[in-house]
Amino acid sequence: MEELIQKVVELINQSRKVIVFTGAGVSTESGIPDFRSPGGIWQKYDPEDFYYQKFISSEESREKYWQMSREFYEPLKNAQPNAAHKAVVELEKMGKLDCVITQNIDNLHQRAGNSPEKVIELHGTAISVSCLSCRKKYTREEIQARLLKGVRVPKCDECGGILKPDTVSFGQSMPPKETAESFQRARNCDLLIVIGSSLVVQPAASIPLEAKDHGAKLVIINRDPTYHDSYADVVIHGSAGEVMKKILEKMK
Ligand code: APR
Q: Are 122 and 204 in contact (CB under 8 A)?
């Protein structure tokens, strides 16, 4: 492990533009479950039930969605950034960070102190909700209050339309600006560090390979093996918080 940590430190020292690419695994040490690990969200809920097309086409699907969302939002709202999030903030302070590309909807990179303009939320955010008809915005907090009072499917106060968190569901189109910018920056970085992602969901999982294909070095830090380990220059199977803390300690 020490040797691998040293290799990552050398790669960061040699780099001007470092991209950090994160998934749910960077936030499990903050108490938010990931999706595909034992005890993960997709172990408890069937992801097939949460496709966008189902959500907009039936009240029953929306009720199922909001029941899952009501439960998932509690650990998310109470979560605090952990050592891995804080290490990414340090990379920004060192002037090494080009951007954070995250699949996470938990806002923890921003809450840790990364500049919002440096965080690209590929799968949207869970902290705001929009009406799909009139686009009226709500905070997730106020909608959570309604759900906890027993509302099963919240509706828009303005037009009675369908409300949905500003996240990207399976089957929903990706945000064009964020997606294009992520691939563009990946093509122009020196080093991309993946932290806590199984790298199975597309198109996000192609971004680390785009960086590699355009000459960048690729580091993967993940508790379990990923589909892209064989492409990486350094692979560390360990806890995100512990590994990132050691990397920052060595850099200082
Ligand atoms: N430290 C390091 N790795 C961890 C830790 C940890 N503390 N906790 C979990 N992991 C790893 C797991 O081993 C797993 O491989 O993080 C990975 C998380 O993978 P997923 O649960 O598949 O999450 P993610 O890759 O972010 O999923 C991508 O899928 O469900 C959709 O939209 C959702 O954005 C999400 C996307």
A: yes
